[in-house]
Amino acid sequence: MSVNRQRLGRIGEAEARRRLELLGYVILVANWRTRHGELDVVAVDGERLVFVEVRSRSAVSGGRYGTAAESVDPRKQRQVRLLAQSYMHFTNRYDASVRFDVIAVTIGEEDNITDYRHYKAAF
């Protein structure tokens, strides 16, 4: 992964966590990793465990590669679900009610957020 993509990802994830906390979500963990992948954000919204996939795009790309939200394709959804199962097993949260959200962040030339969209129950 290029340095620029990593930077965009860090900016987008930080903004997502900040806004989730402003909405009253409790962030349990960010960047939870296994050898099979990574969960960007695991949070609690009321009584629900929420797995949030954060996707960041540069405004400069002008949508050439699709939107950030569109990049969460069926393969990525399947991976996030499997990682969520691993997380629930690891933390003994077998009976938790869950939701899968997507947050799409567009970042401008000077690292400013030009668009932010939160899709609840995206998949």
Description:
The chain has 123 residues and is α+β, with helices and mostly antiparallel strands. The chain has one domain (3-119): 3-Layer(aba) Sandwich (Trna Endonuclease, Chain: A, domain 1), CATH 3.40.1350.10. The protein has two helices and five strands. A five-stranded mixed β-sheet has the order 1-2-3-4-5, sandwiched between helices. A hairpin with a 2-residue loop joins strand 2 (37-45) and strand 3 (48-58). The longest helix is centred in the first third of the chain and has 20 residues, at 3-22. The two termini are 26 Å apart. Belongs to the UPF0102 family.
List the helices and strands and how they pair.
Blueprint: H1 3-22, E1 26-34, E2 37-45, E3 48-58, H2 74-90, E4 98-107, E5 113-119
Parallel strand pairs: 3-4
Antiparallel strand pairs: 1-2, 2-3, 4-5
CATH names the topology as Trna Endonuclease, Chain: A, domain 1
Secondary-structure element order, as H and E?
HEEEHEE
The main sheet orders its strands as: 1-2-3-4-5
- Silhouette: globular
The amount of beta strand, in percent, is 35-45%
Distance between the termini: 26 Å
Largest sheet: 5 strands, mixed
CA radius of gyration is 14 Å
Number of helices: 2
Quickly name the level 1 CATH class. Answer: Alpha Beta
Average predicted local confidence, pLDDT: 93
State the assembly state of the protein chains.
single chain
Uncertain spans = none
- Give me the count of strands: 5
CATH architecture term: 3-Layer(aba) Sandwich
Structural class: alpha+beta
- The level of helicity is 25-40%
Whole-number count of domains: 1
